[in-house]
């Protein structure tokens, strides 16, 4: 869940023309593929960054845990935990998509998305969609519940704290001091 844009970061930009060479499409823009060197006319794929792989792995764990909680834990505790995990997944998704966003920004965007989806439940749209496509119920919900807003805030806050507590990897090892 870490993001770092400092020059010491292993994913730091490789040239001023390529603000984030690991996550930017090639500069030709015509093929829509991700360039291997960031130079015009190249095509191919660049392996995902370590940060993105970590976000994907964390997202998979959160999805598995959320589904387990949703289908096994009943009552208000299960609902609250599932909603908090939903917000954690929203945080991870925002962090994956907008890597340059600071963790606090990812938290704010994730919470706003969760609130918007919860507010949409005041309309008949999500329930109608869930009738046609039942898995949509897990993503969009069907019934507005104000306590869900608190669960989202808790989930996003936990994700933010975890993101801040993960130590950042240094590019250069710390050398021992001479005595």
Mean pLDDT: 78
Give, in order, the helices and strands. HHHHHH
Major beta sheet, specifics?
none
**Rg (C-alpha, Å):** 20 Å
Low-confidence stretches: 1-42
End-to-end CA span: 38 Å
Number of domains: 2
Report the count of strand segments: 0
Structure description:
The chain has 179 residues and is an all-alpha fold. It has 2 domains: 7-47, no CATH class; 50-165, no CATH class. The chain has 6 helices and no strands. The chain has helices spanning 50-72, 75-97, 103-120, 125-132, 136-140, 146-165. α1 packs antiparallel against α2, α2 crosses α6 (146-165) and α3 (103-120) runs antiparallel to α6 (146-165). The chain starts with 49 loop residues before the first helix and ends in a 14-residue tail after the last helix. The relative contact order is 0.14. Mean pLDDT is 78; it is low at 1-42.
Keywords:
179 residues; mainly alpha; 2 domains; 6 helices; elongated; disordered N terminus
What's the short story on this structure?
The protein is mainly alpha-helical.
Present the secondary structure layout.
Elements: H1 50-72, H2 75-97, H3 103-120, H4 125-132, H5 136-140, H6 146-165
